[in-house]
Amino acid sequence: MTPSPQLISWAQQAELPWLRFSPTTGRLEFIVDNTILSDYRGCPAHFVLTYIEGWRRKRISGDVSREWALDFGTLFHRMMEHYYRHFKDEDFKLEDFAIKTAFAEWQKMEMDVHLGHKECQAMGGYPGFAGMLCQYANQFKAENERIKVLATEVAFGKAGDVPIYRDGDTTGNYYSLPYFVECPADIYLSGRLDIIADDGYHILPVDHKTMGSFRGDPLNRFIVDDGPTGYIFALNAILGSLALPEELILKRECNQIQMNLICKSVPKEGSRFKRLPIRKSTAQLEAYRLRTIQTVNHMLSDLELYVRGIGIPRDTSKCNNWYFKECAFLDVHRQMDADAEAATLKNGFIQLPIWNTEAVAGVED
Ligand code: SF4
User: Fold this and answer.
1) N or C: which end of the chain has fewer CB within 10 A?
2) Which residues line ligand 1 (CB under 6 A)?
Protein backbone atom coordinates (compact mmCIF):
# COMPACT_ATOMS: atom_id res chain seq x y z
CA MET A 1 0.00 0.00 0.00
CA THR A 2 1.51 3.32 -1.07
CA PRO A 3 1.74 5.79 1.85
CA SER A 4 -1.05 8.38 1.67
CA PRO A 5 -0.23 12.09 1.14
CA GLN A 6 -1.61 12.58 4.67
CA LEU A 7 0.97 10.19 6.12
CA ILE A 8 3.83 11.70 4.12
CA SER A 9 2.90 15.20 5.20
CA TRP A 10 2.67 14.10 8.86
CA ALA A 11 6.06 12.33 8.64
CA GLN A 12 7.68 15.50 7.26
CA GLN A 13 6.41 17.53 10.19
CA ALA A 14 6.84 14.99 13.00
CA GLU A 15 10.68 15.08 12.90
CA LEU A 16 11.07 11.60 14.35
CA PRO A 17 14.61 10.18 14.52
CA TRP A 18 13.43 6.87 13.00
CA LEU A 19 11.29 8.19 10.12
CA ARG A 20 11.99 10.71 7.37
CA PHE A 21 10.88 11.59 3.85
CA SER A 22 13.44 11.64 1.08
CA PRO A 23 12.70 14.36 -1.52
CA THR A 24 15.25 12.64 -3.80
CA THR A 25 13.48 9.28 -3.98
CA GLY A 26 10.02 10.57 -3.03
CA ARG A 27 9.80 7.74 -0.48
CA LEU A 28 9.51 7.42 3.27
CA GLU A 29 12.62 6.06 4.98
CA PHE A 30 12.48 4.05 8.20
CA ILE A 31 15.69 3.95 10.26
CA VAL A 32 14.79 1.27 12.77
CA ASP A 33 16.71 -0.46 15.54
CA ASN A 34 16.02 -3.62 17.47
CA THR A 35 14.38 -1.76 20.38
CA ILE A 36 11.88 -0.02 18.13
CA LEU A 37 11.11 -3.19 16.17
CA SER A 38 10.64 -5.40 19.22
CA ASP A 39 8.58 -2.82 21.12
CA TYR A 40 6.32 -2.36 18.09
CA ARG A 41 5.90 -6.14 17.82
CA GLY A 42 5.16 -6.22 21.57
CA CYS A 43 2.25 -3.77 21.35
CA PRO A 44 1.59 -1.18 18.60
CA ALA A 45 -0.20 1.13 21.08
CA HIS A 46 2.88 1.10 23.36
CA PHE A 47 5.03 1.94 20.33
CA VAL A 48 2.87 4.98 19.49
CA LEU A 49 2.95 6.37 23.04
CA THR A 50 6.71 5.84 23.33
CA TYR A 51 8.25 6.37 19.89
CA ILE A 52 5.84 8.91 18.41
CA GLU A 53 4.53 10.84 21.39
CA GLY A 54 7.54 10.34 23.70
CA TRP A 55 5.66 9.66 26.97
CA ARG A 56 7.69 8.42 29.96
CA ARG A 57 6.25 7.70 33.40
CA LYS A 58 6.99 10.28 36.13
CA ARG A 59 8.08 9.57 39.67
CA ILE A 60 6.14 11.15 42.55
CA SER A 61 8.90 13.78 42.70
CA GLY A 62 8.00 14.77 39.12
CA ASP A 63 11.25 13.46 37.56
CA VAL A 64 11.19 10.81 34.93
CA SER A 65 11.03 7.32 36.41
CA ARG A 66 14.42 5.51 36.47
CA GLU A 67 14.94 1.90 35.43
CA TRP A 68 17.67 0.03 37.31
CA ALA A 69 18.30 -2.54 34.56
CA LEU A 70 18.57 0.11 31.84
CA ASP A 71 20.74 2.43 33.94
CA PHE A 72 23.05 -0.36 35.04
CA GLY A 73 23.40 -1.59 31.46
CA THR A 74 24.29 1.94 30.33
CA LEU A 75 26.83 2.35 33.14
CA PHE A 76 28.44 -1.01 32.42
CA HIS A 77 28.66 -0.15 28.73
CA ARG A 78 30.45 3.10 29.52
CA MET A 79 32.96 1.22 31.67
CA MET A 80 33.50 -1.41 28.96
CA GLU A 81 34.05 1.29 26.36
CA HIS A 82 36.67 2.88 28.62
CA TYR A 83 38.25 -0.50 29.38
CA TYR A 84 38.63 -1.67 25.80
CA ARG A 85 39.99 1.70 24.69
CA HIS A 86 42.71 1.70 27.34
CA PHE A 87 43.35 -1.78 28.75
CA LYS A 88 46.45 -2.29 26.61
CA ASP A 89 47.91 1.15 27.36
CA GLU A 90 51.24 0.99 29.18
CA ASP A 91 49.97 3.32 31.89
CA PHE A 92 46.61 1.49 32.41
CA LYS A 93 45.99 1.10 36.14
CA LEU A 94 43.32 -1.27 37.42
CA GLU A 95 42.60 0.85 40.49
CA ASP A 96 42.08 3.97 38.40
CA PHE A 97 39.67 2.10 36.15
CA ALA A 98 37.71 0.13 38.76
CA ILE A 99 37.70 2.73 41.51
CA LYS A 100 38.29 6.30 40.29
CA THR A 101 36.64 6.12 36.86
CA ALA A 102 33.88 3.79 38.05
CA PHE A 103 33.06 6.03 41.00
CA ALA A 104 32.97 9.14 38.79
CA GLU A 105 30.57 7.40 36.36
CA TRP A 106 28.46 6.02 39.22
CA GLN A 107 28.12 9.53 40.63
CA LYS A 108 27.46 11.14 37.26
CA MET A 109 24.55 8.75 36.66
CA GLU A 110 23.29 9.21 40.23
CA MET A 111 23.13 5.45 40.63
CA ASP A 112 22.47 5.74 44.36
CA VAL A 113 18.78 6.29 43.47
CA HIS A 114 18.75 2.51 42.87
CA LEU A 115 20.12 1.49 46.26
CA GLY A 116 16.65 0.23 47.24
CA HIS A 117 16.51 -2.13 44.23
CA LYS A 118 17.08 -5.74 45.26
CA GLU A 119 19.64 -6.41 42.51
CA CYS A 120 21.61 -3.28 43.40
CA GLN A 121 21.56 -4.34 47.05
CA ALA A 122 22.64 -7.88 46.17
CA MET A 123 25.53 -6.46 44.14
CA GLY A 124 26.55 -4.27 47.08
CA GLY A 125 25.97 -0.83 45.53
CA TYR A 126 29.04 1.02 44.29
CA PRO A 127 31.64 -1.03 46.27
CA GLY A 128 30.19 -4.22 44.77
CA PHE A 129 30.28 -2.64 41.31
CA ALA A 130 33.96 -1.72 41.75
CA GLY A 131 34.64 -5.32 42.85
CA MET A 132 32.84 -6.65 39.77
CA LEU A 133 34.99 -4.47 37.49
CA CYS A 134 38.17 -5.68 39.24
CA GLN A 135 37.07 -9.28 38.64
CA TYR A 136 36.31 -8.51 34.99
CA ALA A 137 39.61 -6.75 34.38
CA ASN A 138 41.42 -9.62 36.07
CA GLN A 139 39.70 -12.33 33.99
CA PHE A 140 40.07 -10.38 30.74
CA LYS A 141 43.39 -8.64 31.38
CA ALA A 142 45.48 -7.74 28.36
CA GLU A 143 47.55 -10.95 28.47
CA ASN A 144 44.40 -13.16 28.78
CA GLU A 145 42.20 -11.36 26.28
CA ARG A 146 42.21 -13.40 23.09
CA ILE A 147 40.24 -10.98 20.95
CA LYS A 148 41.91 -8.06 19.24
CA VAL A 149 39.73 -4.95 19.52
CA LEU A 150 39.44 -3.17 16.16
CA ALA A 151 36.85 -0.52 17.11
CA THR A 152 34.48 0.37 19.95
CA GLU A 153 31.01 1.96 19.97
CA VAL A 154 30.50 2.01 16.21
CA ALA A 155 27.18 3.70 15.35
CA PHE A 156 25.39 2.88 12.10
CA GLY A 157 22.07 3.83 10.56
CA LYS A 158 21.44 7.48 9.66
CA ALA A 159 23.90 7.41 6.77
CA GLY A 160 21.95 4.53 5.21
CA ASP A 161 24.95 2.22 5.62
CA VAL A 162 22.88 -0.85 6.58
CA PRO A 163 20.03 -1.14 4.08
CA ILE A 164 17.27 -3.66 4.84
CA TYR A 165 15.10 -2.74 1.86
CA ARG A 166 15.35 -0.20 -0.95
CA ASP A 167 13.04 0.52 -3.84
CA GLY A 168 13.17 -2.34 -6.31
CA ASP A 169 15.05 -4.80 -4.04
CA THR A 170 14.14 -8.34 -4.94
CA THR A 171 17.20 -10.19 -3.74
CA GLY A 172 16.82 -13.41 -1.80
CA ASN A 173 13.72 -15.27 -0.88
CA TYR A 174 14.17 -17.45 2.17
CA TYR A 175 10.64 -18.80 2.04
CA SER A 176 10.79 -19.80 -1.67
CA LEU A 177 7.56 -17.94 -2.30
CA PRO A 178 6.44 -17.19 -5.86
CA TYR A 179 6.67 -13.46 -5.07
CA PHE A 180 9.09 -11.16 -3.29
CA VAL A 181 8.46 -9.33 -0.05
CA GLU A 182 8.12 -5.66 -0.91
CA CYS A 183 7.72 -2.40 0.97
CA PRO A 184 6.50 1.02 -0.21
CA ALA A 185 9.15 2.65 2.02
CA ASP A 186 12.92 2.26 2.25
CA ILE A 187 14.28 0.66 5.42
CA TYR A 188 17.65 1.02 7.12
CA LEU A 189 18.88 -0.66 10.26
CA SER A 190 20.42 1.50 12.97
CA GLY A 191 22.26 0.76 16.18
CA ARG A 192 25.65 0.66 17.84
CA LEU A 193 28.18 -2.14 17.89
CA ASP A 194 29.82 -2.29 21.33
CA ILE A 195 33.05 -3.75 19.95
CA ILE A 196 34.26 -4.92 16.56
CA ALA A 197 36.96 -7.52 17.15
CA ASP A 198 39.19 -10.05 15.46
CA ASP A 199 39.18 -13.41 17.29
CA GLY A 200 41.99 -14.78 15.13
CA TYR A 201 39.60 -16.42 12.66
CA HIS A 202 36.78 -13.93 12.09
CA ILE A 203 35.93 -10.29 12.41
CA LEU A 204 32.86 -10.15 14.63
CA PRO A 205 30.83 -7.95 16.92
CA VAL A 206 31.10 -8.38 20.70
CA ASP A 207 27.94 -7.41 22.57
CA HIS A 208 27.86 -6.77 26.35
CA LYS A 209 24.72 -7.95 28.13
CA THR A 210 24.21 -7.50 31.86
CA MET A 211 21.92 -10.14 33.39
CA GLY A 212 20.31 -10.54 36.81
CA SER A 213 21.52 -14.15 37.11
CA PHE A 214 22.77 -17.08 35.03
CA ARG A 215 20.02 -19.69 35.06
CA GLY A 216 20.45 -22.77 32.88
CA ASP A 217 22.11 -21.86 29.60
CA PRO A 218 22.35 -18.04 29.71
CA LEU A 219 22.61 -17.95 25.92
CA ASN A 220 19.09 -19.37 25.49
CA ARG A 221 17.37 -16.02 25.72
CA PHE A 222 19.51 -14.57 22.92
CA ILE A 223 19.47 -17.46 20.43
CA VAL A 224 16.27 -16.35 18.67
CA ASP A 225 16.49 -12.70 19.74
CA ASP A 226 16.67 -10.49 16.66
CA GLY A 227 19.13 -8.10 18.37
CA PRO A 228 22.30 -10.21 17.95
CA THR A 229 21.17 -11.27 14.45
CA GLY A 230 20.81 -7.59 13.52
CA TYR A 231 24.36 -6.87 14.71
CA ILE A 232 25.76 -9.66 12.51
CA PHE A 233 23.67 -8.35 9.60
CA ALA A 234 24.93 -4.80 10.25
CA LEU A 235 28.60 -5.73 10.52
CA ASN A 236 28.40 -7.56 7.19
CA ALA A 237 27.01 -4.39 5.62
CA ILE A 238 29.64 -2.02 7.02
CA LEU A 239 32.72 -4.28 6.98
CA GLY A 240 33.73 -3.18 3.49
CA SER A 241 33.84 0.46 4.54
CA LEU A 242 35.82 0.00 7.77
CA ALA A 243 39.45 1.05 7.74
CA LEU A 244 40.93 -2.34 8.65
CA PRO A 245 44.50 -3.59 8.26
CA GLU A 246 45.29 -5.17 4.88
CA GLU A 247 45.88 -8.65 6.39
CA LEU A 248 42.23 -8.79 7.57
CA ILE A 249 40.84 -8.47 4.07
CA LEU A 250 40.03 -12.21 3.87
CA LYS A 251 37.98 -12.03 7.04
CA ARG A 252 35.49 -9.54 5.66
CA GLU A 253 32.50 -11.77 6.11
CA CYS A 254 30.72 -12.07 9.41
CA ASN A 255 28.49 -14.96 10.50
CA GLN A 256 28.75 -14.80 14.27
CA ILE A 257 28.70 -12.62 17.33
CA GLN A 258 30.38 -13.03 20.71
CA MET A 259 27.97 -12.41 23.59
CA ASN A 260 29.86 -10.96 26.56
CA LEU A 261 27.49 -11.90 29.41
CA ILE A 262 27.87 -10.26 32.81
CA CYS A 263 25.99 -11.57 35.85
CA LYS A 264 25.08 -8.87 38.38
CA SER A 265 24.78 -11.40 41.21
CA VAL A 266 27.62 -13.75 42.14
CA PRO A 267 26.72 -17.22 40.79
CA LYS A 268 26.90 -20.23 43.13
CA GLU A 269 29.56 -21.73 40.89
CA GLY A 270 31.67 -20.62 37.96
CA SER A 271 32.55 -17.15 36.79
CA ARG A 272 30.07 -14.26 36.67
CA PHE A 273 31.38 -13.49 33.17
CA LYS A 274 30.76 -15.70 30.15
CA ARG A 275 31.71 -15.11 26.56
CA LEU A 276 29.69 -17.27 24.18
CA PRO A 277 29.27 -17.24 20.39
CA ILE A 278 26.03 -17.18 18.40
CA ARG A 279 26.28 -18.14 14.73
CA LYS A 280 23.81 -17.23 11.98
CA SER A 281 23.63 -18.75 8.50
CA THR A 282 23.04 -16.74 5.34
CA ALA A 283 19.46 -18.09 5.32
CA GLN A 284 18.89 -16.88 8.88
CA LEU A 285 20.20 -13.41 8.01
CA GLU A 286 17.88 -13.26 4.99
CA ALA A 287 14.91 -14.43 7.09
CA TYR A 288 15.76 -11.65 9.56
CA ARG A 289 15.71 -9.11 6.74
CA LEU A 290 12.32 -10.31 5.50
CA ARG A 291 10.86 -10.24 9.05
CA THR A 292 12.00 -6.65 9.42
CA ILE A 293 10.41 -5.65 6.10
CA GLN A 294 7.10 -7.19 7.14
CA THR A 295 7.19 -5.44 10.52
CA VAL A 296 7.68 -2.09 8.76
CA ASN A 297 4.77 -2.91 6.43
CA HIS A 298 2.58 -3.40 9.51
CA MET A 299 3.95 -0.18 11.05
CA LEU A 300 3.01 1.70 7.89
CA SER A 301 -0.59 0.55 8.03
CA ASP A 302 -0.82 1.44 11.74
CA LEU A 303 0.67 4.87 11.03
CA GLU A 304 -2.09 5.41 8.46
CA LEU A 305 -4.59 4.82 11.27
CA TYR A 306 -2.67 7.07 13.66
CA VAL A 307 -2.57 10.10 11.35
CA ARG A 308 -6.34 9.79 10.91
CA GLY A 309 -6.90 9.66 14.68
CA ILE A 310 -8.17 6.08 14.51
CA GLY A 311 -7.33 3.71 17.38
CA ILE A 312 -4.11 1.73 17.12
CA PRO A 313 -4.18 -2.03 17.83
CA ARG A 314 -3.40 -3.02 21.44
CA ASP A 315 -1.86 -6.30 22.46
CA THR A 316 -3.59 -6.71 25.80
CA SER A 317 -1.71 -9.94 26.55
CA LYS A 318 1.27 -7.70 27.38
CA CYS A 319 -0.46 -5.31 29.81
CA ASN A 320 0.63 -7.31 32.86
CA ASN A 321 3.77 -8.72 31.31
CA TRP A 322 5.72 -6.04 29.48
CA TYR A 323 9.18 -7.58 29.66
CA PHE A 324 8.20 -9.33 32.94
CA LYS A 325 6.65 -6.22 34.50
CA GLU A 326 3.37 -4.33 34.39
CA CYS A 327 3.17 -2.08 31.33
CA ALA A 328 3.86 1.59 32.15
CA PHE A 329 0.70 2.58 30.23
CA LEU A 330 -1.74 0.28 32.04
CA ASP A 331 -3.17 3.22 34.01
CA VAL A 332 -3.78 5.07 30.75
CA HIS A 333 -5.46 2.24 28.92
CA ARG A 334 -7.75 1.27 31.78
CA GLN A 335 -9.50 4.69 31.55
CA MET A 336 -13.09 5.03 30.33
CA ASP A 337 -12.59 7.43 27.44
CA ALA A 338 -10.03 9.43 25.46
CA ASP A 339 -10.33 12.50 27.71
CA ALA A 340 -9.53 10.43 30.81
CA GLU A 341 -6.60 8.81 28.98
CA ALA A 342 -5.25 12.25 28.04
CA ALA A 343 -5.64 13.46 31.65
CA THR A 344 -3.80 10.38 32.98
CA LEU A 345 -0.95 10.95 30.55
CA LYS A 346 -0.75 14.62 31.53
CA ASN A 347 -0.70 13.88 35.25
CA GLY A 348 1.44 10.78 35.46
CA PHE A 349 3.80 11.07 32.49
CA ILE A 350 6.28 13.45 30.94
CA GLN A 351 7.10 13.94 27.25
CA LEU A 352 10.78 13.50 26.41
CA PRO A 353 12.76 13.51 23.15
CA ILE A 354 12.16 10.34 21.17
CA TRP A 355 14.61 7.42 21.48
CA ASN A 356 17.51 7.93 19.10
CA THR A 357 19.53 4.78 18.59
CA GLU A 358 22.66 6.49 17.39
CA ALA A 359 22.76 8.66 20.50
CA VAL A 360 22.08 5.94 23.06
CA ALA A 361 24.53 3.31 24.22
CA GLY A 362 22.37 1.76 26.92
CA VAL A 363 21.31 -1.83 27.06
CA GLU A 364 18.57 -3.37 29.08
CA ASP A 365 18.70 -6.48 31.15
S1 SF4 B 1 -1.33 -1.26 28.70
FE2 SF4 B 1 -1.50 -3.03 27.35
S3 SF4 B 1 -2.51 -2.24 25.53
FE4 SF4 B 1 -1.77 -0.49 26.67
S5 SF4 B 1 0.24 -0.03 25.79
FE6 SF4 B 1 0.57 -1.37 27.51
S7 SF4 B 1 0.62 -3.43 26.66
FE8 SF4 B 1 -0.32 -2.11 25.14
Assistant:
1) N
2) 43, 45-46, 314-316, 318-319, 322, 327, 329-330, 333
